[in-house]
Amino acid sequence: MMDLLNNIVTSKEQTSQPEPIIITFLHSRNPEAMKKLRNYYTQSHHQQHSSSELVTKHRKWVFPVAIIVSLFSLSSFLFIAAATLTSPDTTRYFPFPLSSTKSSTTLPPSSLFVESKLHPLPPPSSPSSPPRFAYLVSGSAGHGPAIKRTLAALYHPRNRYVVHLDLESSPEERGDLTRHVEGHVMFRRFRNVRMVSKANLVTYRGPTMVANTLHAAAIALTEFDDWDWFINLSASDYPLVTQDDLLHTFSNLPRDLNFIDHTSDIGWKDHQRARPIIIDPGLYMTKKQDVFWITQRRSRPTAFKLFTGSAWMVLSRSFIDYCIWGWDNLPRTVLMYYTNFISSPEGYFHTVICNAQEFRNTTVNSDLHFISWDNPPKQHPHYLTLADMQEMVDSNAPFARKFHGDDPVLDKIDGELLSRGPGMVVPGGWCIGSSKNGSDPCSIIGNTTDLRPGPGSKRLETLFTSLLSEENFRSKQCV
């Protein structure tokens, strides 16, 4: 295996544009091999960035000496200003490096367009600690208890959480959930759970669902600046693995991967979703109403290609930065288009990521969910019960949906897959207390970077080995 790995790395180093070789790194199940692959992946990004800086430095010598002298004082001022702006207190406000250097193969020397000078933050190099997830957990009227349970099942001190209960819920229900978040011993200690105080009106199938997701992502970027992936879930979702399982497995992955189920073969959605024009009253009303159609229809766009897929996804920090800042305007343009698109959550992020050159090759075609659909699929999936338990486990997926909030299958998942006691969070390597006689092991807290992966991590390894295989990874990106 190591000989094969050396051959792969050597051959890639000889190319001018190294391609991330993540399609093989999980096959080896060899920690040394996986470490070497991760190091190669991050080094290749660093080498490209370093070479682009060298090219730019060489270009500076072609300017006339007279111009350099006349602008010397101004350059000095800008250098000092840039150093100030990139100090630890201010870097979080910039989603891109202030340097405008780019490879000569992608940036014309005389380019005057600001879009060509901006690019997403590179993946962190050689991360020394486990990653962090930023979760959005959202619900509507009556979902307060389900959100509390889902939060407990998802909780880990390293992660960040944004909780939203939409405007259809009563002020009393939102107040109860706010008090739960503010009063929970663990949440209060680590201060990593945020309740959206100004609730949004979210219309099912409307663009307000996309707006709410972008709102939560913006909160995550503003309130927490140290996470790696953004995961959107609803009150009807539930994890099938512990957070230690998930963090351990994602520690072996490049941090610019995006797990998003997608296809350009939209089929029947062309006639029923792409052509009609809908209006979402949730954009301008204070009471929830269903979307409505207008009589005029429209043609397929030609400025970008439509993609569709699952509304549930795991998105990288760099892609979320791009969607919020939108420095080449594609995210905003696509958002305007999807404002009048039925079920826009099943198309917006998919269309943006597959039309953005810098992100289209980071996609993994999966939503990491177990969902039971009719064939052909109807508007809603089945609600999962005890009868679906084995199929859920066999899917190796880290999440499943939809569940009724009090279904007995959730108790079975808590007991058999998560080891979660009633009213407790899921224990992990950071919990060093005793669990005897029903005690909460997380009442005593150790090192939050210590992970204790269990059987769920083996299932995830099997899943990712398949998703990142040669036959499933590159061949299924944005097609």
UniProtKB/TrEMBL annotation:
Key word Repeat present: no
GO molecular function, one term: glucuronosyltransferase activity
TM helices/strands, residue ranges: 61-85
Keyword annotations: Glycoprotein, Glycosyltransferase, Membrane, Transferase, Transmembrane, Transmembrane helix
Signal peptide: none
Entry GO CC: membrane
Keyword Glycoprotein attributed: yes
Pfam families for this protein: Branch
Main location: membrane
Membrane topology: Single-pass type II membrane protein
Compartments, record wording: Membrane
Protein name in UniProt: Uncharacterized protein
